Amino acid sequence: MRTFGVEEELLIVDPDTGDPLALVDRVLAVMGRPRDVEREFKLEQVEIQTQPCITHEELLGQLYHGRRALDRAARQVGARIAALGTSPFRSATHVSPGERFAAMVEEFRLTSQQQLTCGLHVHVSIDSPDEGVAILDRIREWLPLLVALSANSPFWHGSNTGYASFRTQVWNRWPTAGPQQLFGSAQAYERLVAAMVGTGAILDEGMVYFDARLSRRHPTVEVRAQDVCLNAADAALIAVLVRGLVETAARDASDGRPPLGTQVALLRLASWRASRSGLNGALVHPLEARPVPAADAMGALLEHLGPVLRESGELAPAERAVHGLLAGGSGERAQREAASDGDGLADVVRAAVEATQQRDGGWDDGA
Length: 367
Fold this sequence. Notes:
Strand content: 5-15%
Number of strands: 11
Structural class: alpha+beta
Low-confidence stretches: none
Radius of gyration: 19 Å
Helix content: 40-55%
Shape: globular
Number of helices: 14
Distance between the termini: 22 Å
Order of helices and strands: EHEEHEHHEHHEEHHEEHHEEHHHH
């Protein structure tokens, strides 16, 4: 079975007002600067990195441990940790020190100044770059569904955006972000990346922000389309689904099945639709490129992954977890409910702080 792991970006917030706090260095100092926790682009956020895992339970345990350890450290400096795709508040942000980040701010101006978003990146092991590119070419159509499942960013700069994942809209302002073309081979992928850097429009290979890419640091495919999930259990579910997509794609490539080859323009529309609706309305069917109820789109995903997930013993619990999200909503719905039940956006953040530490979720290995 392929190993998998995740990186999840989290906000550091004021426990009373909900405002983001630029305290990552103080949080890391309290923790003794562990290797699996890192700074991000902004000082108001922090990233957890799991080790490579084999089982869902192992991955989920690492996420629980990482979130709790971060929150304990944050409490010691007067803050808390919240798993939110965007901060609901308009606030000044502070760029982490370093020449590269300073250059990004200078070049990309308002896009980089406003960029305080938190994503979930899933890494799945591959045998070679060529296998990785064959996988990238065969998972493109399914990634918008992961945006819908993870949607956790309805508020931005004090406003109800009307989007389930407004992080997707903000993130896609970077020039390389979003769905991409078919690559065909590792050589073609590498040539494109080199040509993109060669334009001077991006600083380096690290700014290749495709929804899914070959990792620069690990022998993995890295799927980056998702919001950070409010609940760790949902993050672990999405990691299982991503591993299922990777394994299914690898087998299809090995068996000589060609990629679907959906045009990038249609993939962008599917991603926009998922960002707008989340699980609350229609999504674009990944095989038919037409609007269908979210439950039908997720049914197609589970059918596509059925053989691989059944083989690993993950199909039944994954089905229950997906159906639980369809019924109860993602973090986006929880945020809206907190806003309507409370006194405002500060209540959204306070509710998110508590949900970030919760151990419940729809995954059940029983049955």
